Amino acid sequence: MNLPAIWAIYKFEMARFFRSILQSFVSPVISTSLYFVVFGAAIGSRIDQVEGVSYGAFIVPGLVMLSVMTQAISNASFGIYFPKFIGTIYELLSAPVNFLEIVLGFVGAAATKALFIGVVILGTAAFFVDLQIMHPVAMVIFLLLTCMSFSLLGFIIGIWARNFEQLQLVPLLVVTPLVFLGGSFYSISMLPPAWQTVAYFNPVVYLVSGFRWSFFGLADVPIAVSLLAIAGFTAICLAAVWWIFKTGWRIRT
Question: Is a pLDDT exceeding 70 seen at residue 102?
Fold first, then answer.
């Protein structure tokens, strides 16, 4: 394992993040505050509690998941797409590093950035609601797995994209709608039976449900199923990345 190479890639990507640290810090704080104003105040005044939890606190795990997923995808996809765009990826491919070391550097940096945003949102939420975490270890595990798995997805999107428009296509048209429809701001049990069945085909439901369980002990699906879902998703992404580097799909073109 070429640790200096991994560290060099990781440090380079993190330096890009710290150059815009103010924007990276302020933006999620403002967005989270607006969500609490719109959802927590406006809707929360009509929905007092959801399964015994105040609505303001109930939406916190969904807010964290929404931001972590989108940030992980965005950072990882741009991180690998930009070297493709300017042609420096060929220097990386010709260096004495294998695909695993390249992935660890880019994905590790993107996951770190997403984790930072998640922590910022949790801290911001604490100013609005009385937040208690029943299973802190499980919360950290779910948060780390989500950061890593969606950073891998973002890495795949960055390799697939041929232009900046395609880079934003999947996050805007696929991931964000899935998060909003995945029980981020409501419980799946509140839906009619037919729509509950449809919701279970949404993979984000299992992530949000497991993450919410770590806060309140409430889940729309069993916690074991949530863990299997995110583990399976991570395995699929890893297999896709391995295939991309094995075949050179859209890396050398």
Answer: yes
